[in-house]
């Protein structure tokens, strides 16, 4: 018998998926829970079973959220909160999959350290001609504002590495804050 080292994740996480909904279909009814992961091995197994974002149909989305948080704007702790969004043009020689996987591995490896406390999850949305990757955060307060800005600064580094066109913070109620100050 082989004894395997169990490496627990700092948080338990859930992978979700949905495809483009037909108009008038309840979006919440279309979302599917794919996997729950609590260890590094469970994460790697789940990740290996998933299609790469570049192979998903237009309108499809992946979500990776802390357990107990559904990727729904209208529910706590997402209600009134927001997300750092990166828009990535789909073009030859631009590896969209690496941006998504780099963020996933940063989250599960504690690469974001104490910033994970202010993160609800990350999303990957396939749209016509572009991919939108977002880090959903908790509501901004005077106490956590600096931490939310730090998350954006980390994304600025990713933006430079991958040549991502735009990055902005958007409140889930559809107004947005452009830039990082």
From TrEMBL:
InterPro entries: TIF_eIF4e-like (IPR023398), TIF_eIF_4E (IPR001040). One of its GO terms (cellular component) is eukaryotic translation initiation factor 4F complex. Gene3D superfamilies: RNA Cap, Translation Initiation Factor Eif4e. One of its GO terms (biological process) is regulation of translation. Belongs to the eukaryotic initiation factor 4E family. This is Translation Initiation factor eIF-4e,Translation Initiation factor eIF- 4e-like. The keyword Protein biosynthesis applies. GO terms for molecular function: RNA 7-methylguanosine cap binding; translation initiation factor activity. Keywords: Initiation factor, Protein biosynthesis, RNA-binding, Translation regulation.
